[in-house]
Amino acid sequence: MMRERVIIVAAGMAPDVAAEVDAACRRAAVTPVRWESHQTLPRSAQLVVAALKTGCREISQEVVDLVELQAAGAPLLLLADEPLVRPALTIQDGRITLLGRPFSGCRVYSQLRLLLGGREGNAPRATAHHCGQVIFATRERLRRSFWTAEIAVGKDEDRSTRFPEVHLDRLEAMTAVLPFEASFSISQRDRERILETLHTQPRGGDRGAELSNLLGTRAGLVGLTARASEWIVYWPSTALPLWMYSPVRLPRFRDLAAHRSDVGRRMVRFPAFSGDLTVALSSSLAGNGSGASEVAALMDQGGPAFLDYVEAQCGGQAAVAGLLTEVR
């Protein structure tokens, strides 16, 4: 299978930054194509990476021409040589992403993999490979407002391990039902009732009770309202991981499952902000001996980098379903 191509604009990119980008491309298993302005404009790349000098607020015309030439409408990752109000910002409906200093191979890698995820109108970016004694399978989807990675881990003969059931709509809303048990199943009618409960019914009423009737204690739910404006979380377990990290919240890291009892109900709804990353898993990570500060530091590297960490911890697991969601 032909590897995805990433064009790296050499002009204005410092050697240390170029080295981090090269390392990120190797980790993401994509082909970097270094481009100098005197060379013929390359075609058929899935992503363009360029540098933005300190204080510069305008994209160079050669970079604009290069991006516009890409037939698939390749996104642009701009590496801004200064800190930003948030680690990463998106503009022009997600077509352009700005990543501020400090740069690291992990943070650049996360943005590369995020931007190469299955974009709207395309199939998810799917992978499956051996991880210890199990198969670790993922499906990544990219939308203007968020990125998701669905996880299914199981043994070769274990056909009951399933991905979370994810519903996306044209208003940039997302609803994911995460089974806690391999035997859990949900009917089409109940799926429709869940969507109606969350996204079409007027505010008010005990939606948590309605979700409890539909899902009980055998599944959780993580959702985003239209244009990723609010989180909706139904999590009937204090033991299974439901983590949130955000560079614009205090505290930055929160174990939502452990603190769910603080609000006295299973369903919570709260504003979503760019940079929010949630991790929901149907099983604790067997190899995870990290404390909250270590997990927070790993999540700070971005959703795709943390997905690699989850994979590294799942080699001895029998069956795991999971969902990572990052708001852009």
Please write out the topology.
Layout: E1 5-9, H1 15-28, E2 31-35, E3 47-52, H2 61-69, E4 76-80, E5 88-91, E6 96-100, H3 105-115, E7 118-119, E8 125-131, E9 134-142, E10 146-154, E11 165-168, E12 174-179, H4 188-200, H5 207-215, E13 219-224, E14 230-234, E15 242-245, E16 253-255, H6 256-259, E17 267-271, E18 277-281, H7 292-299, H8 303-313, E19 319-327
Parallel strand pairs: 1-2, 1-3, 3-4, 4-6, 7-9
Antiparallel strand pairs: 5-6, 8-9, 9-10, 10-19, 11-12, 12-13, 13-14, 14-17, 15-16, 15-18, 18-19
Helix pairs in contact: 1-3, 4-5
Please tag this protein with its features:
Phosphatase 2c, domain 1; eight-stranded mixed beta sheet; 8 helices; Rossmann fold; 328 residues; 19 strands; 2 domains; alpha+beta; six-stranded mixed beta sheet
